[in-house]
Task: structure prediction
Amino acid sequence: MSLIDIQDLSLFLGQGLRERKILDGISFAVEPGQTYGLVGESGSGKSTVLRCIAGLYKHWTGSITVAGQTFRSAERLAWCRDVQMVFQDPYGSLHPKHQIEDIIAEPLHVHGLDAIGDRVGKALDQVGLPGKFRYRYPHQLSGGQRQRVAIARAMVLRPKILLLDEPTSALDVSIQAEILNLFMDLREELQLTYLLVSHDLAVIDHMCSGFAVMQAGRIVEVMSREALENHAAGAAYTRTLIEASERYDRDLALRQAEAE
Amino acid sequence: MNEPILSVKDLNVRYFGARGAMHAVRNVSFDVGKEKVAIIGESGSGKSTVGRAILRLLPDIARVEAGALDFEGRSMLSLSEKQMQDMRGRRISMILQDPKFSLNPVMSVGEQVSEAYLAHFKVSRAEAKKRAIAQLAAVRIRDPEHVYGLYPHEVSGGMGQRIMIAMMLIPDPALIIADEPTSALDVTVRLQVLALLDDLVRERGIGLLFISHDLNLVQSFCDRVLIMYSGQVVEELRADQLDRAQHEYSQGLLASLPRIGQRRDRLPTLNRRSEWADDLARRT
Amino acid sequence: MTETGNSATGWRDYLNSDTVSSTRQATAQRVYWGLRAFIGNPLAVFGLVVILVMIAAAILAPVIATHEPNVQDLNRALQPPSGANWLGTDELGRDIYSRIVYGSRISIYIVILVSVIVAPVGLLVGMAAGYFGGWVDRVLMRITDIFLSFPSLILALAFAAALGPGIENAVIAISLTAWPSIARLARAETLTMRASDFIAAAQVSGASAFRILRRHILPICVPSVIVRITLNMAGVLLTAAGLGFLGLGAQPPTPEWGAMTSAGRRFMIDSWWVVTMPGLAILVVALAFNLFGDGLRDVLDPRQSR
Result:
């Protein structure tokens, strides 16, 4: 059975005349232990899917099922223990006035867990941060270190699923490599399942066995990693996306301008 | 051999902040001819500082020194602030990362392009508007008369960046400094903006200094690449030879980049060495 | 720190060190750097000193006053400043210096009481409106607008006239007009934060709305509210003095500064000190609160400073 099962997910945002359909009948499934990707350009709705699963939007229609339990029937705290999220911007996702220790401990307090000091220490250790960071504030850390803190916070509840929303796109390439490696290690160590949103096909190819290509709130195509590597895209949009992200190509640009 | 448009020798930038001095750019030298030259590096490498130092756009706490800073054969070091102002925009233009922050939100985009022309040439408003519309058409904006009257919030990111480019080009500069001009754009839009810059270099013989963190892009787009690390140029090479970079830092950077079809369990990470910075300091 | 001679350097290391080993050290470092920034602003330090002097005067009033504030001595009425009466005497022969010293108690009492009422109410209303949005926001903000549209002195006048003059009623009247600006500030702060990822992260962790407001939003709102309240204190002081001047605040013989200037205005031509001395006290303290508030803003809320 699939660990994550999304059926016909639709979402409207805005009110009255400015109401717009953000998601339009999204369906896909993710197996346990898999890393599944969502690719698309800005405004495609890929991050919104994650926000729906995380419970940040609640007025969607359709169904979201995690480990056999639907979102609507699940208890909120139980859902949160299974599903955690890492955000794109490591500068905006940590509370500026909380110490690193408090940031990681916060979910533990919310869920009323014990041995908080030990769990925080272990989480720091798992994401490769030395203990001396414990009493620092976010502004004293680099972007990569902050993202490690955000990962530690997401992991400290021992979730089954991590939702990753462009987790490395604000980071330098060498830092991105470290964070992607960390994700790989954690997946092994904790039997995690990832749902990874990215605009970068190379990152998706590196991390995911399969992925969905999104455009304007819809899934245009579902591809496997092999299909991506063989350039076996079915939809024209996906082909352009792949070619445009691999390198600059003057002819492709001219062709695309013609087609518009 | 074509004459360089811009020639920089031994550029040094030091910041004197509240917490002591910082040597942000160290002995950087390079030329830009009628070509696309990239400066790549990670955040904090000093790549953006180089572009801003050339245009004297750094804050007061920065001190810029250079052995030579020649533009079209003339030294820029001796220019007064007034002459420099004329140089900026008129002969050297700068394109920034996010058009949203660079455009005036309460003025139509067309008027902003006109203004850019009027700032440097004494012509009538009607003439400036004609030039502006022609320029909007030149950056491949369809229906430029309509777009002329739109406000910044009514245009998309890619369109905004094209308008910025139109604005920068209208006084007919000889050099464009583009600081991460496409990193806020989607890949398909990015392609169009790059093609536009490409045409300018090919057709108008403009020099392009392209500041970026995107190795992949630079490799296929630019002619030459300078790789910066901690304020210094560690290596300079032809863009199509980027894969054959010699310096350990360049190699590490290239290796850490995930690529489609290159399956690796782990990405090699960069082991930053303090010698890199010291070595170069001694060498120069 | 094994050697006592090194304790000064030990402290400096403790406060500057990059390796922070406890929550206490982290807090100490923050306070230390904040203090250093504050001391760099001489006007703010002047403001703080004046406020501290005033607080000291209020506490030690019986010790530093030279006379009983309410004891009349008609033989010594309207004496100019002298060795016996440092700031002169009023029309009933009371020592003005002593009355100003005792009057500081009343000023501080009013300022503290207003702050204690206004800060929690403003924070609560503003944070709730900003966080929940929708109809909660609309209702709370319209109520705020209503209170904001009353001119504060006029409302206070009406209130004092209805409930009868007195310090407590003056405090209630001033509080009624002072909380809306705090609520607006807290709402604006909350709105900018509501869309941020750290609030989303707290929601994803399962935290309740109450917990998010208390643990995540409050700590960011409090500094700017403290700054605003400090800056408001000057206005509160002036309104209180104004009410006293009009006879609707503190009642005679209470040595309230506003009431003192009011009583003295009949003798202004011949005995300038009766009005000038309490007037100067109001001026200096109001100025001190403004300067202190400005300095505090630079330390606590760097975004808002020039």
Remarks:
- The CA atoms of residues 220 and 228 of chain C lie 14 Å apart.
